[in-house]
């Protein structure tokens, strides 16, 4: 079975040989991603292409198709992806990341910074009528709406099954809002809409 792998160079950086949209001369590694099935091989790439055509506010990893050989033995088709960390966000936005959260469970975990301000935002949202103007104003004050809407358009359009698999981030600027990274759409386009 194919396995995905993350490569991190000794010394922390390597030349950026792969990603033209990442303006950094050096990167802190990359992911060689296997697909769980032949049918899923192109799904992330299709969503990335549509995202680019839309001029989306949603960050998505650049990729490069590759063929992997290990010790001369063919291991199959893989995609080389940018790592979706704070360096990736800074390379694409020019902004320094204060908080980077991984929403792979019901409780968002901090990969950088903390999840406290996000949890405070959710606590405020949970005690007001979600249909009220006050709720919209709170969301608008805490979330980059373009990024949020593009995130959900992609999630809903692709019928993405692993709904907790997402990342969101906030910069170090005083009036910073939460923005999203879209990824992992290979478990999508599967179930029919009822």
Write the layout of secondary structure elements.
Blueprint: E1 5-7, E2 14-15, E3 26-27, E4 30-33, H1 43-54, E5 59-60, E6 63-70, E7 73-82, H2 86-93, E8 97-102, E9 109-112, H3 116-126, H4 133-142, H5 145-157, E10 167-171, E11 179-182
Parallel strand pairs: 5-11
Antiparallel strand pairs: 1-4, 2-3, 4-7, 6-7, 8-9, 8-10, 10-11
Any descriptors?
194 residues, alpha+beta, 5-stranded mixed β-sheet, 4-stranded antiparallel β-sheet, 5 helices, 26% strand
Task: Briefly summarize what is shown.
The protein has 194 residues and is an alpha+beta fold. It has 5 helices and 11 strands.
Tell me what you see in this structure.
With 194 residues, the protein is α+β, with helices and mostly antiparallel strands. Helices cover 28% and strands 26% of the residues. It has 5 helices and 11 strands. The strands form 3 sheets. A 5-stranded mixed β-sheet has the order 5-11-10-8-9, with helices on both faces. It has a 4-stranded antiparallel β-sheet with strand order 1-4-7-6, with no helix packed on it. The chain has a two-stranded antiparallel ribbon with strand order 2-3. A hairpin with a 2-residue loop joins strand 6 and strand 7. The chain is globular and about 60 Å long.
């Amino acid at each position: 079975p194919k396995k995905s792998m993350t490569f991190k160079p000794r010394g922390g950086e390597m030349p950026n040989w792969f990603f033209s949209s990442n303006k950094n001369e050096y990167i802190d590694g990359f992911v060689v991603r296997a697909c769980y099935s032949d049918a899923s091989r192109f799904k992330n790439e299709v969503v990335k292409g549509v995202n680019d055509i839309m001029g989306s506010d949603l960050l998505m990893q650049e990729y490069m198709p590759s063929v992997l050989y290990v010790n001369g033995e063919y291991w199959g088709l893989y995609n080389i992806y940018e790592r979706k960390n704070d360096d990736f966000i800074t390379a694409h936005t020019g902004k320094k990341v204060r908080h980077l959260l991984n929403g792979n469970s019901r409780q968002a975990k901090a990969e950088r910074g903390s999840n406290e301000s996000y949890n405070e935002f959710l606590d405020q949202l949970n005690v007001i009528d979600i249909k009220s103007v006050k709720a919209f104003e709170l969301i608008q004050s805490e979330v980059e709406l373009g990024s949020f809407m593009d995130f959900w358009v992609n999630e809903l359009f692709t019928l993405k099954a692993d709904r907790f698999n997402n990342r969101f981030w906030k910069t170090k600027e005083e009036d910073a809002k939460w923005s999203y990274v879209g990824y992992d759409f290979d478990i999508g386009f599967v179930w029919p809409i009822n």
